[in-house]
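Worked example 2:
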Amino acid sequence: VFSQISDSNGLLIFSKFDQFLKEVLKLPTAVFEGPSFGYTEHSLRSCFPQQKKITLNMFLDTLMADPPPQCLVWLPLVHRLAHVENVFHPVECSYCRCESMMGFRYRCQQCHNYQLCQSCFWRGHASGPHSNQHQMKEHSSW
């Protein structure tokens, strides 16, 4: 990404980064998270409040900061989603009873062998002795 928004000297071109932000922040807006994570005229400056010349290392430090700038908070989640969208888990969902799962798999830390598919977990489904108050562990591989 940086190579596409920087000049030949390896410095960030703010107008290109601003355009990049406008494009990538369309995604949270599309899922009704625009008020929290969408593009605003302050998005660019929230990433680099005082720096005038941004190098690759400064750019990476900002993207990997904990916490990152508010407008970039959702990026790690999107990365994790893309990473697991085709991951297959050969186990049954304890709620919907589908015989295998794709994407994230969630395992209860209290209920023996209680596992939810991504869809059921995100919808807050629970069955039997399991409660939504129980701690769940997210798995991105089998």
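The beta strands are 88-89, 101-102, 105-108, 115-117, 136-139. The domain at 2-83 is CATH 1.10.238.10 (Recoverin; domain 1).
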